Amino acid sequence: MAICVFPYPVSRGIHALLHPAVRDEPRQAAQHGALIATRLIGGGLALVAFPAYLALMGPPTLVGAVVFAWLLTPLAVAFYLSRSGRLDAARIASSGSLAGLVALVAGATGGPASPLLVWMLAVPAEAALWGSRRLLGFAVGFAGAATAAVCLAALAGVLPPAPGFVQSAWALPLLGLVPAALYVVAVAAAQGAPMAGRPADEGGETSHRMMIEHGPDAVTRHRRNGNVTYASGGAGRCLGVPAGELHGCGLFNRVHVMDRPAYLKAIDLAAETGEAAAEIRLAAGASRTQDWLWIEMRCRALPDAVGDGPDVVSVLRDITALKAQEQAASEAIELAERRDLAKTRFLARVSHELRTPLNAIIGFSELLSESPEAGIEPGKEREYAGLIRDSGRHLLDLINDILDMSKLESGNFHVLPEPFDLAELIENCRQLLGPEAAAAGLSLENDLPVDLPPLMADRRACKQMLLNLLHNAVKFSNRNGRIVVGAYVEGEAACFYVADEGIGIARDDLARLGQPFVQLQSNYDRNYEGAGLGLSVVKGLVALHDGKLEIDSTPGVGTRVTVRLPLAPRMVPVSEEGVETQNAADSAAEPLRLTA
Amino acid sequence: MAAKTVLIVEDNELNMKLFNDLLVAHGYETIQTRSGTEALGLARQHKPDLILMDIQLPEVSGLDVTRWIKEDDELHAIPVVAVTAFAMKGDEERIRKGGCEAYISKPISVAKFLETIRRYLGEYSGDRP
Known about the structure:
The structure holds two protein chains of two kinds.
Chain A: H1 8-17, H2 26-57, H3 62-71, H4 73-84, H5 87-108, H6 122-129, H7 133-156, H8 171-191, H9 193-196, H10 205-214, E1 218-222, E2 228-231, H11 233-239, H12 250-254, H13 260-273, E3 275-283, E4 292-301, E5 312-318, H14 320-369, H15 371-374, H16 380-410, E6 418-420, H17 422-439, E7 443-447, E8 455-457, H18 459-475, E9 482-490, E10 493-500, H19 507-510, H20 534-544, E11 548-554, E12 558-566, H21 576-582
Parallel strand pairs in A: 7-9
Antiparallel strand pairs in A: 1-2, 1-5, 3-4, 4-5, 6-8, 9-10, 10-12, 11-12
Helix pairs in contact in A: 1-2, 2-4, 2-5, 2-8, 3-5, 4-5, 5-6, 5-7, 6-7, 6-8, 14-16, 16-20, 17-18, 18-20
Chain B: E1 5-9, H1 13-25, E2 29-33, H2 36-46, E3 50-53, H3 62-71, E4 80-84, H4 91-97, E5 102-105, H5 110-120
Parallel strand pairs in B: 1-2, 1-3, 3-4, 4-5
Helix pairs in contact in B: 2-3
């Protein structure tokens, strides 16, 4: 507040002299400003008075020269404070400088009897305004020591004789009491607060400007063309740069290229209609390629003082977090909708897949129960019973797939690694699928190295992966095709694969493949039966083993699915229960699985 | 009166056998195909009295085949009965809009299945739509 007692240009000049560390701290800036201002005025007056002294009194005496030299010490104090920012040290030096000056002048004008010695009281009086006991102590000490020095010098008889004017009656009030008192009042006014209690200029214009400059809001003032003529400290803080960098085109250059039209339009619109707003992206930080902040800019036209169109003042608000929340919310909604759609599709799919075998089961059993009237040929009963059994088994497979998938999805599928012979398992699976492949007119071959090391993995899971892959290969192969199932070791991984010469998968579809319950074509002309669960289950089981699933496919040529499992997996601690079930039959390790 | 002929378009082997045996047991002649593309040629060749149409088929859907039949000057009068496992809300409406005269959802009821067939073969007097 202190610098507010000076006209604005002066206070701005003083503001420029402040140490950078205190410029943005209003209270400290006021204290530093007060000391610098008063020291500059004191020292400045001495400089101005020196030529006049020379003209009136002729060449100075030795004492006169020392006094003048001493009169310049306040300038040194101001300079020191401006450069160092150390207020207490500057104040102590200032007290010492004033005490010394008074002692010199008093010594030259009659010593202890000099009316100018009254000035010595100004030293502690000024220090008292600073509100620090330590500083007051220094001031009293300096004043006491200086007074004592004057008295000692008088006793020693080294002082020059007192000039005549000090004897006159007006000397004491005119040279001593009044100016000293005025000095203290001036210092107090510059200091401001302690005496007045409240800042004198709370409602004034400079105060308002200061509120904007130092307030929390990011405020900018624009010409109608968008150029910035003022940016508050808050605007600089908002963008992490000195506010001065935003002047002119500085702010515009930080606006995202895509948002520049919106920025200019908002300012133009505000100038025209009085008010406008825009949401724009601004580059924050020193390098212009750094973070983008979302900024809400609200603009209002200022009164048009000059008549060349109104300036626009705008308040910037960082809404980056808000934008991120909006984004997250809309993504969450989108995800929920996608899941909802997937669930609906899944239900439709499962309904379709369950109804197909149920149709055979119910239809044939109705036929059997009505056989006399329906005129079923003798001997057909046995065949129908067999068909009902086949359909029932198909239904069971389907339900097991669904259960597996839901166990995988809910994280309830426990993997129990054990060493086993992968080659033997592959041959076992090949034989299991043999009849199905033969019925579809396919050859099913294996490709196994002789020295395949034992694999440490969940045997049942591996069996299921192989069966699902083989099943898919049979389903998606053309007649007379060839299917190869094989294994090999590559680096730290055991790999097994199933390759077919079937219909293949288009590149675009590969990414979607293996998502639960998704078969590629989603409409009525879906080529193949099935809920699309097989590959999803494989994918889930591979993930449980820290493995990788690779699918290479060319439409019309064939598909090769490779499973890579780590040879030495991270050992999952096996529970008591796990140890017991390890040697048990397959069915015992799968409590949730239904068995025929 | 010569036996009526029914063209069965159905890709599931067991269901094909069920429909075939049901129809044969009730005195109909049948023509069978698993393929929608083949169905159109067979319809032209044999001019069946009725077509049983599965909707989910390899390559082309039963709805596509139905559309071709309904667009064909010679074939469009043949009733097409959809027999499908698509039985969710909206499926029947969509399938009827696709040109099928009737819709039967799987699993079928044998009695209702036979009744629908008889109705569309005009074997109930005055019962034709």
